[in-house]
């Protein structure tokens, strides 16, 4: 016998524990526990979303009871899995990267959501709460909840693309700032900041290409429970993922241009300083030679007993130095 439950609002759903939400066109959203779902009979217009914490002890037992194959259960509960889409007869196992925030390390801020989706259920395994699901719940407040698992999946991949687009804007602002600093003010920003932008663009690009591959693999499958509208939504999410990957390529190219400009300015400054040192050497090296020659402690130096010889030699050296300086300036050495 079906168990009755109270309707809930999206604002009452918290993503810090495991739960099950039953979606119905006529009855709205209802929250159940895993134990309540065992005795609940889904109606023809209902499907459920199970949001399970990976470390929960009862996960395997629950997944076995809902009828998943052992290989799919192992994939869902695996701690490390590469992003991919594994299609079965009735549904699909999907491992997809989700960013909670702009990553600071190679994988430290990137979470992999492991999902099973078929006609009547969508099961998500999480280790840390994922903000993308919170954004979906907030969307339920302003528009009608999804009417099928296919629509829920389409909304999820679109939400992931939206979060990635936010990261694109952040990286574009950062590279714009670096370009302004280098090209307009002539200052040299920290190279570590530029390297971080290039690294982040590479991480997001790689994630979006994997995202695109997953969506295309899912799109080509002819699931009866995925209608044309939701296929179009999934295709749109794939197009956005491709556009984001292209934006990341553009950001990396701009970062390379900024890096080349930094190196050019650094080389230009170095050359200018070396040229200045060479010009100074041209002026003072002959003077040092003359003064060194006159300072040797041997007899026979002209004017050694003349009281005005030092003044005469000093005057000649000044005139000679000014002449050398004029020659250097004439040839525009510096």
UniProtKB/TrEMBL annotation:
Keywords of this entry: Cell inner membrane, Cell membrane, Ion transport, Membrane, Transmembrane, Transmembrane helix, Transport, Zinc
Membrane topology: Multi-pass membrane protein
Gene3D superfamilies in alphabetical order: CorA soluble domain-like, Magnesium transport protein CorA, transmembrane region
Short name of any one Pfam family annotated for the protein: CorA
Taxon lineage: Bacteria, Pseudomonadati, Pseudomonadota, Alphaproteobacteria, Hyphomicrobiales
Organism: Pseudovibrio ascidiaceicola
Subcellular location(s) per record: Cell membrane
Family of the protein in this entry: Belongs to the CorA metal ion transporter (MIT) (TC 1.A.35) family.
Transmembrane domains' residue ranges: 273-296, 308-331
Protein name as annotated: Zinc transporter
């Amino acid at each position: 016998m079906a168990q009755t439950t109270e309707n809930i609002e999206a604002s009452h759903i918290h993503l810090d524990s495991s739960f099950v939400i039953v979606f119905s066109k006529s009855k709205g959203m209802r929250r159940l526990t895993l134990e309540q779902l065992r005795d609940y009979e889904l109606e023809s217009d209902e499907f459920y979303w199970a949001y399970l914490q990976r470390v929960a002890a009862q996960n395997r037992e629950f997944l076995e009871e809902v009828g998943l194959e052992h290989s799919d259960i192992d994939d869902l509960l695996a701690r490390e899995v590469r992003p991919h889409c594994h299609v079965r007869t009735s549904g699909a196992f999907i491992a997809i990267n989700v960013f909670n925030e702009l990553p600071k390390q190679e994988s430290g801020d990137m979470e992999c959501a492991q999902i099973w989706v078929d006609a009547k259920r969508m099961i998500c395994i999480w280790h840390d709460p994922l903000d993308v699901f919170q954004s979906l719940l907030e969307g339920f407040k302003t528009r009608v909840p999804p009417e099928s698992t296919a629509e829920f999946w389409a909304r999820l991949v679109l939400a992931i693309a939206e979060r990635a687009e936010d990261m694109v804007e952040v990286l574009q602002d950062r590279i714009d700032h670096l370009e302004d600093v280098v090209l307009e003010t002539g200052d040299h920003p920290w190279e570590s900041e530029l390297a971080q932008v290039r690294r982040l663009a590479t991480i997001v690009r790689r994630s979006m290409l994997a995202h695109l591959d997953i969506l295309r693999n899912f799109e080509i499958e002819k699931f009866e429970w995925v209608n044309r509208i939701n296929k179009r939504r999934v295709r749109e999410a794939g197009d956005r993922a491709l556009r984001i990957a292209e934006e990341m390529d553009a950001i990396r190219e701009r970062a390379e241009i900024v890096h080349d400009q930094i190196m050019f300015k650094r080389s230009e400054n170095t050359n200018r300083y070396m040229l200045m040192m060479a010009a100074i050497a041209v002026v003072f090296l002959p003077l040092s030679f003359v003064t060194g020659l006159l300072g040797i402690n041997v007899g026979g130096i002209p004017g050694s007993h003349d009281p005005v010889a030092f003044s005469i030699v000093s005057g000649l050296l000044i005139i000679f130095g000014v002449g050398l300086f004029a020659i250097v300036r004439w040839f525009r050495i510096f």
